[in-house]
Design goal:
Radius of gyration: 15 Å
Shape: globular
Order of helices and strands: HHHEHHEEEEE
Structural class: alpha+beta
Number of strands: 6
Distance between the termini: 50 Å
Strand order of the largest sheet: 4-3-2-5
Largest sheet: 4 strands, antiparallel
C-alpha cells in the first residue's frame, strides 16, 4: 500500500495528528538551522496540560511516521516536536541529550525522550550514549 493510500485509511484524528507532526517537524528543523537550541525550545515550549485525547504511543507514532517522510531531519527537531506534542496531551516527557565515544574521529550525539523513567522516543542504542543534558518540560502550576 502506498503512503497516500495508508494516510486515507487513518481516522480523521490520526490524519490531523500526522499533518501537525509534519508541519512542526519542518518548522523545528528550520528554527534549529537559524536559531539556538534554547530559542527553538522556547518557541516550541508548552506547559504540560492535564487532558488528553491521544495516548503516548499514538503521539510517538505520529512523530515517527512524519519523520520517515522527512529523512533529512535529525533527532533534535524530532525530540523537540515529540516533547511538545506529548506535553500538549498531558504527558511530561524529559528530553535527554547524550554523546557516544568518538568513532572514526567523529563525535556522535543523540536526543531522545523519557516518560515515567522509560525511553519512549528515539530509543535506539541508548546504552552507547552518556547523558550530558536533561531538559524537563514545563509544568502547569497548581492553582
Amino acid at each position: 500500500m502506498t503512503g497516500l493510500v495508508k494516510f486515507f485509511h487513518l481516522s480523521f484524528g490520526e490524519q490531523l495528528l500526522l499533518i501537525r507532526s509534519l508541519s512542526l517537524l519542518f518548522m523545528a528543523h528550520l528554527c534549529l538551522r537559524f536559531l539556538s537550541l534554547q530559542t527553538t525550545r522556547r518557541l516550541f515550549s508548552t506547559r504540560v496540560c492535564s487532558a488528553t485525547s491521544h495516548s503516548v504511543h499514538q503521539l510517538v507514532w505520529a512523530v515517527t511516521s512524519a519523520s520517515r517522510r522527512l529523512p533529512f531531519i535529525s533527532c533534535m527537531p524530532r525530540a523537540i516536536v515529540a516533547q511538545r506534542l506529548l506535553a500538549l496531551h498531558g504527558f511530561g516527557a524529559a528530553m535527554r541529550i547524550g554523546v557516544a565515544p568518538p568513532g572514526e574521529n567523529k563525535l556522535q550525539a543523540h536526543a531522545w525522550l523519557e516518560y515515567e523513567g522509560e525511553a519512549v522516543f528515539g530509543a535506539s542504542e541508548l546504552d552507547r550514549y552518556t547523558v550530558l543534558l536533561t531538559l524537563e518540560p514545563e509544568r502547569t502550576p497548581h492553582v
